[in-house]
Design a protein that fits this description.
alpha+beta, Jelly Rolls, Rossmann fold, flat
């Protein structure tokens, strides 16, 4: 039974924020190699790399520049350990990276070397620079400055990038089909000459290249190429070419094992406008059928694609917009339309996959040109995401979402029943986007719901490892997802798939946005949805942070023994910002603190090992009267003047494997955790946030760094205190304010 008094979420948490001094820095770690030992290790490797690099034809070296691979020792993964001075000293520059796993020759710790996560940098420079580097390594270590000597010790391996490295595994037929070439190149800079030189080299080899639909995303350019297999092999010598792979084909729009059919049950559509016509959501999908009954709420944008021949695929776009407008149908009952929809029909028959880049370019242009706050994508490439490469779809989408002004909901794909050992069931692009909410499917709307068998699983990529973010009801054989069928007097159409879970989740987000108005930022909306998702005892790898909460009142309110508080705003690079946790004194028993932190970040798709540019270090200080201990360089300890901290967003249970990067959670755009402590363990608790920024994996300097939008949601829960909400309002009322709904919260949406 609902309580008579509604305890709405408390906002303006940013009034409890202050800038503080940074904590003491940890001492520098010991290096695994002595400087001269590092020089001796690298000298033959650099000489061998030069010999291999000289095998490329001059036409394959734009501006006379070659590319080599520099692998860092696993101990040197932080941005402060990036070998900037070494690269500058020898005339090389980093143009990309990839995550890697190696077993180093030596480690600084007492244990034996083991396989560990690290990064491999792709470094470019003239052949003269590579020659000079190899020559200097043959001489005395004194030829390098002390700082460069330290960075030489951070290099575990150095080798040439070969044509074999650039060619993805594929059979002969695939090599003779349409291929996607990924270049290290940026638009509107000098790097654009790389694309010109690549096109000239491809034409010299007799290959066809499509520059009309070329796509740029940060430091990568994606191009379609086709031609003779032998010529493709020679094309792989081009130094700034990162990857040649088969052109991605769009995934099947519907799972093959789910029955789909009209039911003969006539739908009674509502005679009402959207709850908030000021919100316009974008749906990109297959075109709507010629005859449908959703014109009042959905405006179609056409792009001249060839309609699908399969009837169910032709109805996919209609079902997606139906789910976004009405949610899953209860028998023939229809929910209230929440917002207006612009339906962009970008998908159609594409037998040679040539429409992939065209569809993506349309999405890029339309999102950039319109003020959509909400976007849904229920399609993408038919492939599991890869850690060492970023798909064009993911790169473009993350770039569009990086300012935090719009939120995309993306279906994770319907290959969840494929081989788990080979990770063929992993989330599909672009649902690995770190700035989007990726949505999997549950099989039921009952309390005993589970992941639908077809729904793809995590983990995601570095930058947002928990994928899917959430699940929503997507339908099953026993409990199908009901949609509006075609025709002016439509019948219920039964289907299932993550394609419909995603727009249904977007509809819930739209209802929250319509209810709260401008009191909620887009990043605040994202944090609130994830904070209230229910995982319970299910596997995070399968369902992310859990099931989307569709009860809007429960999402926005608290029980008497708990309180929800929202902090939202922007963070400035380099500053430490303390967020006071509004916890009254004299609480009894156990106190549960649930926290969710979200932010939007620019990305570097050419550096998937350091994909997100923004990272937030979180420091949880539960008791202002307890101070920490500092371990000095000689191993001795001394008392600190800084309040003791302890982990809060410790992602060890999320990332799991022992070889996972230890700093991964510091660069994760979504963090969620729960902490249970005795009330006596708290005194003036706080969470400090420190926004770090890197660019292309390197530390950035100066004050002209972009701010990032962030949101922090806290739920403080103490079952022994049945008036906690009122106590917090009384004690912190001068700072916090109640976020009251702008409209009446509906019982059902």
């Amino acid at each position: 039974m609902r309580q008579a008094k509604r305890n709405y979420i408390l906002g303006a948490g940013e009034q409890l924020v202050e800038t503080v001094l940074p904590p003491p820095k940890a001492p520098r770690k010991n290096s695994p190699y002595l400087p001269d030992e590092a020089r001796a290790r690298l000298s033959p490797r650099a000489s061998s790399a030069v010999i291999t690099l000289r095998q490329a034809p001059p036409e394959a070296l734009p501006g006379g520049e070659a590319v080599a691979a520099l692998t860092l020792h696993p101990q040197y993964l932080s941005k402060s350990a990036f070998p900037s001075d070494l690269l500058n000293d020898v005339g090389l520059r980093a143009i990309g990276s990839k995550p890697d796993h190696i077993k180093p020759d030596k480690v600084a710790r007492k244990s034996e070397p083991r396989d560990e996560a690290t990064s491999t940098l792709f470094v470019a420079g003239s052949m003269q620079a590579f020659d000079a580097f190899a020559t200097r390594l043959q001489g005395s270590i004194s030829g390098f400055s002390s700082r460069v000597q330290e960075e030489l010790a951070a290099v575990e391996d150095f080798r040439a990038v070969t044509p074999e490295d650039r060619l993805s595994p594929m059979d002969s037929d695939a090599r003779q089909g349409l291929l996607e070439c990924v270049l290290h190149a940026r638009s509107k800079t000098l790097d654009s000459t790389v694309v010109r030189d690549f096109a000239e080299y491809a034409r010299l080899l007799g290959l066809n290249i499509d520059r009309d639909h070329e796509l740029f995303a940060s430091g990568l350019c994606f191009l379609a190429v086709s031609g003779d297999e032998a010529a493709i092999q020679k094309l792989a010598y081009f130094s700034f070419l990162r990857r040649i792979r088969p052109m991605p084909r769009m995934r099947p729009l519907l799972p093959t094992k789910v029955a789909r059919a009209t039911t003969g049950m006539r739908i009674q559509l509502p005679d009402s406008d959207p709850i908030d016509s000021g919100i316009v959501a974008a749906v990109f999908d297959a075109p709507l059928p010629n005859d449908h009954a959703m014109h009042r709420w959905v405006e179609e944008k056409e792009y001249g694609v060839t309609p699908y021949t399969d009837e169910d695929e032709r109805l996919h776009g209609l079902c997606v917009s139906s789910a976004a407008t009405f949610g899953p149908l209860d028998n023939v009952q229809v929910g209230s339309p929440v917002f207006s929809i612009h339906h962009h029909g970008v998908l159609g028959e594409d037998p040679d996959n040539s429409g992939y880049h065209a569809a993506l370019k349309t999405i890029q242009e339309q999102v950039a040109a319109n003020d959509y706050q909400l976007i849904n994508l229920s399609f993408g490439p038919d492939e599991a995401m890869l850690d060492d490469d970023v798909n064009a779809f993911t790169a473009v989408l993350d770039e569009l979402l990086s300012d935090g002004k719009r939120l995309a909901f993306v279906a994770v794909g319907n290959s969840g029943d494929l081989d788990d050992d080979l990770q063929l069931n992993r989330v599909q692009p672009p649902s690995d986007a770190v700035n989007a909410i990726s949505v999997g499917a549950s099989d039921s709307r009952q309390a005993n719901w589970q992941r639908a068998y077809y729904s793809c699983v995590g983990p995601g990529r570095l930058g947002c490892r928990v994928k899917p973010d959430v699940v929503a009801f997507g339908g099953s054989l026993d409990e199908p997802f009901g949609c509006i069928g075609p025709g002016a007097q439509p019948e219920r159409y039964n289907t299932a798939g993550t394609s419909f879970a995603s727009p249904a989740a977007m509809r819930t987000a739209g209802m929250v946005l319509a209810t709260m108005g401008d009191q909620l930022t887009i990043t605040g909306l994202r944090a609130l949805l994830l904070h209230n998702s229910k995982l319970e005892n299910r596997e995070r790898r399968e369902v992310g942070h859990g099931l989307v909460q569709t009860d809007i009142e429960s999402l926005l309110t608290s029980d008497d023994h708990e309180v929800k508080v929202l902090f939202q705003g922007n963070l400035t690079a380099g500053k430490y910002v303390r967020h006071e946790i509004p916890m009254p004194p004299d609480l009894q028993g156990m106190v549960e603190l649930e926290a969710t932190l979200c932010y939007a970040s620019r990305v570097d798709p050419d550096f998937p090992a350091s994909y997100v540019q923004a990272g937030i270090e979180t420091i949880f200080r539960p008791n202002a009267d307890k101070f920490g201990v500092i371990i000095q360089e000689d191993g001795t300890k001394r008392d600190s003047q800084t309040v003791k901290s302890e982990p809060l967003f410790n992602q060890g249970g999320v990332y799991g494997e022992a070889d996972e990067r230890k700093d991964a959670h510091l660069w994760d755009t979504v963090l969620k955790a729960t902490k249970n402590k005795r009330a006596t363990s708290y005194k003036n608790p706080c969470i400090e946030l420190h926004y770090n920024r890197r660019d292309a994996g390197q530390p950035t300097a100066g004050t002209n760094q972009p701010e990032i939008p962030y949101a922090l949601v806290l739920t403080i829960r103490c079952k022994a205190v049945n008036d906690l909400y009122d106590r917090v309002r009384t004690r912190y009322g001068a700072n916090l304010r109640v976020l009251t709904p702008k409209i009446e919260i509906p019982v059902r949406i």
